[in-house]
Amino acid sequence: MKALLALLKDYWGVLRRPSVHYSLGFLTLVGFISGIIFWGGFNTALEVTNTEEFCTSCHEMRDNVFVELKDTIHYSNRSGVRATCPDCHVPHKWTDKIARKMQASKEVWGKIFGTINTREKFLAHRRELAEHEWKRLKANDSLECRNCHNFDYMDFTKQGKRATQMHSTALASGEATCIDCHKGIAHKLPDMSGVPGW
Amino acid sequence: MSYRLLPLMLLAVFGLAVASDLNYPLDAPAPDSRRAGGTISESLPAPELSVTENKDLKRERNYPEQPPTIPHSIRGYHLDKNSNKCLSCHSRANSERSQAPMISITHYMDRDGQPLAAVSPRRYFCNQCHVTQKNAPTLVENNFETIDQLLEKQAAEAAKKP
Question: For the complex shown, is ipTM > 0.90?
Fold first, then answer.
């Protein structure tokens, strides 16, 4: 313990003292360059985890939720604009994204310990997992939906009668958000007993 | 003759039949199915896809017991043992919020006519009876006449007689 304290004290001394061998300019430049490398590396790694290839590289995602997505309008449609996993499940803004990524570290734990590594286990957990996503989207006012579906530019005259009625009242007043009605639009639903409105 | 030679004999006969070019009628008319026309060996282009009607306007029922047709698109609606998207608007409890027609009271009864608290399991799968409609040519000809048409016809005939 004493030795460790002494060692730490030594290092503290080194850090405190001005540099003897290297110039301030050199240190600043090295700091700047390594900053770019570290930050760039971090961001690149982060972006890699934000791709569909990364998500579907695990069989849990590829064989369950990704298969279900393929049947929906968010995967295949007339105009060919499509949503990938992170479009709906990861916020676009940096701070929100980092917060979400930190939460998602729990998924690494789940992967390592095989929480949903079989179809049966996945189905048993489906309600819980779905509720996490509903809660998240409810809390952020369906932020990920709104990244593409902007309320301000919705043309009610182009919508169906029922859609117009709901969007112009409940959604417009902020009383309801997208996820309140549009559950199960990209994946199959769990047992919905007890879910309000279902 | 040994039976072991029989398969060989059959093969030989078949080979001869093929070699002598019996000209099988591959251009025979195809079965008169939903896609009429063409021959057996011919593949016809698929008919054009039609769009589901989405007008939200009630259609007339041809007879009182007819399950009403669905006047809107139901693409992507989940209807399985986990959830029923139809009921999220058409159930008793949800029809006020959605202003959609409530499903018939008979759907809340068991087969003995006893009222139930929730939709009867035998009525749960809506699209067993209720279907969307498409603006497409009919696949099978249908000359169904409603009771009104029959009565009108009868009245017209009765008026003609004397």
Answer: no
